[in-house]
Amino acid sequence: MFQWRWLGDEERDLSGLERQVDGLTGRLIISEAKRSDAGRYECAVDNGVPPAVRADARLIVRFKPEIQKGVHLSKVAVPGDGKSSTGLVCKAEGIPTVSFSWAKNGVTLDFKNPRYSVQTSHEQWVHTSTLIIANVSAVHDYAIFTCTATNSLGLDTFSIHLVSTSRPDPPSDLKVLSFKQNSVTLGWSAGFDGGLEQKFRVRYRWSGVDSYMYVDVFPPQSLVFTITGLKGSTTYNFSVNAINVLGDSDYADGDAVITVTTQEDLQLEPPKPEPTPAPPQADAFAWTPYLFAAMGGGGALIIISNAGLVCCLVRRHRMRTKEGKPLNTDGELINTHAKKTLLIDSGSETGSSVYQAGYEDWYGDPDVHEYEEIQGVYPPSSRSRWPPGVMKYEIPVSMEAGKD
What we know:
By secondary structure, the protein is mostly beta strands.
């Protein structure tokens, strides 16, 4: 059993191709083969006993030369000062091998002239010829050079115009690639750069406005650019040109204008905010039992502490009474061990002194000190505060012979 598979980079379905099997020989038939059919194919043979046997083969499609062409390749600019050099490149594809020839203004170029030389390279089916011109002269070398590529299947030609440096040629093939509510994407093909680095600039305006807006393309050499910040449902006119250090080109396609109407703005209603659920609230009466319990416990502690204080006072009173320490009428203890006690009667005159019984005996004793009355010691206001007959101060005085 024979199976065929394409070994190229991309997947390819071979089921539509004709297959032939002749005994031990299998064939894959490709009718009217094209350049895209060229490449490697694999054949796998399996007789039911693994492993299968595999082999591959390369298909080579023969075709006449095809030179790469384009507006940007059709001109080369260089100063014609007799000092500068340049190279004209002609690249072609073809099988079998391609050969090249050059002509200037229709006359075959004479390579005996030392100012002209050719370099040629071949890589598989791609072939390149470069015409090198030294000491370019504006008088002798500003001309049309024609490259001819030839093989056994045919030939192809391409002309290159050698000119002086200048402002760039206009771009071409300006078109709209896409557009939205607020943006438009444009594309174009580059023209001749004038022999210098060029960049592109987009010009646009909308209906009802006379002045233009200008936007420099970025990256500068890009051939696709998106203009943003536009209004929806608005008609715009666009054009593009090229710029180098020597000046600006005309606008693309003979100053053509591309007209685009942007899409309508979508009036989307803002999403309604979802109601925020209220945070869970604690039960107002959840703490009531604990509150009453705390209050009850606090009250019980106060009662117990007061009861303990009363007990301590009663016990102290009993102990004092048991030790024989009498109290006065005001609850103050009286020192019964003093030999003499000076009593100050609030009802007496100012400066008078009254003593307990035995005062005369004590006063007549020559061994004791004599005391002199002191006038004006107590303020008059003090007499009005102390009721008569009430003892307020009890000054124990112990008098022993021989001592002050």
